[in-house]
Structure formats: C-alpha cells, structure tokens
Design a protein that fits this description.
The structure is a homodimer. The first copy, chain A, is α+β, with helices and mostly antiparallel strands. Helices cover 30% and strands 30% of the residues of chain A. In chain A, the strands form three sheets. In chain A, strands 6, 7, 8, 9, 10 and 11 form a six-stranded mixed β-sheet that branches. In chain A, helix 2 packs parallel to helix 4. At the A-B interface, helix 4, strand 4, strand 5, strand 6 and strand 9 of A face helix 4, strand 4, strand 5, strand 6 and strand 9 of B. Chains A, B: May contribute to the regulation of cell proliferation.
Chain lengths: 300, 300
C-alpha cells in the first residue's frame, strides 16, 4: 500500500510538473503578446529566438495562442516575423493569417478574430509624387524638362517620388535640383491629382502634387540620365502649346493666371501646426485665410 | 581498346546528358524570370509548384539565377512568393533579398544588383484620410461629431480612411453617411495636411484631406460605435470655440470666410481628365481657372 501510494503520489507530481512545465515551456518559448487599445493582440518574434517551426505550429494551434485570445474576446492578432524566420509564415497562413504588410526585414501578418469581415486598418494606399513649377517672375519663364525614354516628347515640370518622411515642398525642391541643377524655394501648393491602380505604384494609388517654386539660381545643369532636354520656357507658350501633357498644360494656365492677376488667386500656402496627441508637427495647406477671420480667435 | 572507347563514349554521353538534364531541370522547376523595361528581372513563383526549399536554395545560389542576371547586366531581381511557400523567403534573405512589400497572400522581395544603394521605387508611403465639412448654407450650420473613446471631447468634422481605390470625395461622402446618417454631395477640396511617422499608419505618413460637402438630408442618425455626440453647429461658433482641434478650428474659419465672401475664395473644385498612357481617368484639384485663361487654348 505504501509503495502504491508513493507511486500514485509520484504520478501526480509528474503529471502536475508536466502540465506546469509544458505551460512554462510554451510561455517561455513563444511570447504572450501585448494587447493594444483596440483589443488586438500583438506578437513580436525575435530573430535570435523562436526558431523551431514544429514548436511554433503546435503553439499557434494549441490552447495558449489563437484559441486563448478568442476566449479572451480579442479582436485580432498581429504577428511580426523577422525575415530569417519566414518559414513560420507558412504555418501562420494555415491558421488563417494573411500578410498585412512587409518591409525590409520584417513581415506583419494579421488574423481577424471577430465575426464578419476584418475591420483592421489597411496599410499605406498611396505613393506621393511632387513636381515643381519654378517660375522666374522677372522674365515670365518657367523651368521645363522632357523625360528621357518616353514615346511622347512632352514638356513637363521636373519632379519625382517623395522619399519616406519627406515633406511635399522638400520633395519638389530636391527633385528640381537633381533633375535640372536649379536651386529653388517652396512658395505654395497649386494642385493635387489622384489616380488609382497606378502602373508605377504596384497597383496602389498615386497622389501627384504640383508646387509653385521660386528660383534661387538660373544656370541649368540637367541630369542626362533622367532628362532629354531642359530649358526656361515662356510661361504663356507652355500654357498654350500642344507639346505638353494635359496636366502640365492646365497647371501652366493656372500659373499664368496667377502670374497675371496675383498668386493669391491660385496659391495654397503651407502652415506648420503642432499635432494634438503625438507632439509632432504637421504641414497644413489651404487658401490664405484673411487676417480678419484668423484674428477673431483673439476676441474669445 | 574498343571496350575502353565505348566506356569513354558512354561517360561523355552521361556527362552531357547530366548537364543538359540538369539545366532543363533547373529551367523547368524554377522560372527564368521576365525582364522589365527598367532592366530588372521579375520571378513569380506559383503556389502549385516550386515547393522544394533545398532545390530553391541551390537554384538561387547556382549559375542560372542571381549570378546569371548579374552577368546579363540586370539592375535588380523582384521575387513574388505566395504565402504558402514562405519557407523560401528565408533562403532568399540569405542571398541578400529584402521585403519590398507584402499583401494578402503574396510577398514581394527585391535584390539590387548594381553598385551603390538601391534605386528601386519604394512601396506606398501614405495612408489617406478624408473629412467632410457638411455646411447647410440656409442655416449657416455645419455637421460636427465628437469621437468616442477620446480623452479630449473636441468637436470635429466626420471622416475616416479611404478604402483602396476610392476617390477623395467618395470617402468624404461615405464616412459622413456612416458616422452621422447624413447624405451629402462633394463640392470641393479645402485643405490638405501631411504628417509623418503617424502612429495610426504603421509608422508611414498620413495625408488628411478636408472637403466641403453639401447636405442632401438633415436628420441625424449617428453611429454609437464611433461617435459620442453629433450635431448641426453654428459655423461661426465652431470657428471660434476652444472645444475643438487646431485643424478643425482653422478649417472652420476658412469655411466661414468662404460662406461670408464666396466659396470661390477657398474652393479647389475637381476636374476629371484622361491619363496619357493608361487610358484611365484621374481627378485633378486646383483653384477654379477663369474661362478666359482656359479658353485661350482654342485660339491655338
């Protein structure tokens, strides 16, 4: 009886230890996940750990991952996986995960846990391109280029894609300098174009913004890799020539209108304001607000 | 001698066959890649094929993949991998590939083959949010909401993120309807805000656009999941109250100016134009171009 009792006790201890150890093993090997303010769980895997695919698979299928988060009423799971552990993605896909986005050395997958279609926010949907209309007000001439390797040799304003984190005006000034050698400064935003399913944007949308710039230098030194031609062209000529794109023609007409009757008619100047929550700053563009309307704030 | 010669011949045939078969095996198992107009090679793997990781690894390291494309002077490699074959990504990373982007069930990796830093275009950099300032011109009242779950109970215009492929005006109208139950139509674009490292945009940039809308219905039926309050507020009161965000206050002042002195002072109406190459259409926003300046085209 004693030996039997000891054996029973041993068995109990063993089973208990296995359960505790098993849980500890799971929580040690695979992170618990952090709950965000929208009720989602975020799990960030580290390149130096979490290497075993079989263990990942059983953890994700087991009771300490998706099943538990569902029981806890979480809305979704975000899984951040370093590129070197990409073998794990296949197993996440088997559990219903999809790519949310990926960049450089990390991919992010999501799984929506609630009823109905996912209400998670998507990733960035637009690329932003900026062109600069550099107008020499003394001569009425504007800086134009013809792109290399195009079937149509149309005059257009120099410009290109924004770098990540780059302000609209900064892109215009940089692209003008890179393409034409002309230094300039930002004056205003003139126009925005939105185009979807853009061939050059991996099927995403394209936001193309044209700015009015003021030249700070005048001697052209254009980039032969990007441009076929570059010159200072009479603005009125550009506005009414057929050797240009429809958008360049239209903005040249608008700029000509501003040149003749005052830029306040066409300009959206920029104002920098502090963001409420983040402490960062943002750039706001709109028609000039007359002092009278702005100043009324002070009365209150 | 004869037997020796036969053996030699057999050996030659065998080595030749192995070379031909080996090459055929490689080209049959792993796609050759398509060359794009920028000199890059694009390789699209299929979920139904290309399953063997060891074979992928030796193909990518061997002389029929990266090494050959380098010899051929290609600029870069684009690798499109279905999510079920994500195990292959790890081997691509070992050869220097990085994620360009990923979405739903596919990831795209790139490897720059030329000297210096990659000159490949990046993926989308901005999310786009749109708010609608719905002004009832008869009463001078504007539709405002207070968001649920915010620390500051500030009045603001209803709005939200654009769906993929959705026009700016369409987002404004949809979001206003979803949040407040008010039907409206797009009149003009009023303002653009650009903000980088946006906390709600996965570190990407945020473009926030405010539109002027005209109400088509007046009876509020707001969404209790999104809004705490919703009402028609006197525009002048909104413009000069402190119970609002800096951007709402500023755009309310601008809208008040337009209401008092004519919307032509503040509006960027939309025009739809055909794209030169794709045959698709795009939306262009800028200050109204007077007929005189537009009409001059006809003279040429």
């Amino acid at each position: 009886m004693q030996r039997c009792g000891a054996l029973w006790a041993l068995g109990t201890v063993y089973r208990y230890a296995r359960r505790v150890y098993g849980r500890a093993l799971c929580s040690a090997t695979w992170p618990q996940g952090k709950v965000d303010r929208f009720g989602g769980v975020s799990v960030r895997l580290l390149p130096s750990e979490h290497r075993e695919e079989a263990s990942f698979k059983s953890w994700l299928r087991g009771k300490y991952a998706v099943r538990r988060w569902k029981e806890e009423g979480r809305t979704a799971v975000w899984l951040h996986i370093p590129i070197t552990l990409s073998g794990l993605i296949t197993y996440a896909a088997m559990e219903g995960f999809h790519f949310h986005h990926a960049e450089n050395d990390t991919s992010t997958l999501t799984l929506w846990l609630k009823e109905g279609p996912s209400r998670l926010p998507g990733f960035a949907t637009h690329q932003v391109g900026v062109a600069g209309a550099v107008l020499d007000e003394d001569t009425g001439r504007v800086l134009v280029v013809q792109d290399k390797n195009k079937t149509l040799n149309a005059w257009k304003f120099p410009g290109g894609l924004s770098d990540p984190g780059e302000d609209i005006g900064a892109t215009a000034v940089r692209e003008v300098l890179e393409e034409t050698g002309i230094k300039s400064e930002f004056k205003s935003l003139l126009s925005i174009r939105q185009q979807h399913n853009h061939p050059g944007a991996f099927g995403k949308s394209d936001m193309y913004i044209i700015c009015r710039l003021k030249p700070l230098s005048y001697s052209i030194n254009f980039c032969p890799h990007e441009c076929l031609k570059c010159e200072w062209m009479d603005l009125q000529e550009l506005a009414y020539t057929s050797h240009t794109t429809p958008i360049t023609s239209r903005i040249a007409k608008l700029l000509f209108y501003g040149y003749k009757e005052g830029f306040h008619n066409i300009d959206l100047p920029v104002k920098t304001l502090p963001a409420v929550y983040s402490g960062l700053f943002y750039s706001l563009y709109h028609k000039e607000l007359p002092a009278f309307y702005e100043a009324k704030t002070d009365l209150q």
